[in-house]
Amino acid sequence: MTCFDEKRRLFVLGATTLVVGCFGAQSGDDSTNDDAGDEDGGDESTSGDCTQTAGTYVGDVTSFAQGTWTLTGQIIVAQDVDGLYAYTAICTHAGCVVDAPASNGRTLCPCHGSQFDGNGAVLRGPAASPLRHFAVALCDGGVYVDTTTTVSATARTPPS
After folding, report:
1. DSSP three-state, residue 86
2. Which tens digit of pLDDT belongs to each residue from 45-96?
3. Which of 24, 34, 110, 126 could form a disulfide with 44 if both were Cys (CB 3.0 to 4.6 A apart)?
4. If you classify domain 3-151 with CATH, what class do you get?
């Protein structure tokens, strides 16, 4: 399987696992998607039928300790003092997948050398745009990332 085929497979896998429901409002979310969140104001950490959670399961909440960044497929999942967040690992310059983040969260695009900080902001070009952030939801201790819902770079989901 070529690198391109693997990227396409991961994209299709992520796109086809999207289902609706069990998705709560996020702290600090100024999403450009008016449909983000529950209409009933539900809590994103509710337990119940997690098959109805919007997004792709990326691991248990305990897998993402505060102060860490984890490359999961084409998504980087991190946690800071305010909570969990996720952003794309696809460089905004030419669409290459960035390297796994270093211990300080910085990541490098292997194609043309763009560098991003631990929140996806550009530190060095040629990329001119930051990495897009996605909605994060919790259900029964699992972390789900909804790559169809773009949120503010400051949006966080508390881990509890």
Report:
1. strand
2. 444 577 777 899 999 999 999 999 999 999 999 999 999 999 999 999 999 9
3. 24
4. mainly beta
Q: Which of 94, 91, 85 is nearest to 107 (CA)?
A: 91
Residue with tokens 């952003």: 87
Q: Which two tokens stand for residue 63?
A: 């897998």
Give how far Cα 96 sits from Cα of 4, 12, 22, 81, Å: 10, 16, 32, 29
The values of phi and psi at residue 46, to 5°, are -65, 150
Q: H/E element holding 146?
A: strand 142-151
Q: What is the dihedral of CA 115, 117, 120, 125, to 10 degrees?
A: -30
**Half-sphere exposure at residue 120, Cβ-oriented, CA atoms within 13 angstroms:** 27
Which residue carries 């050398």 as its tokens? 113
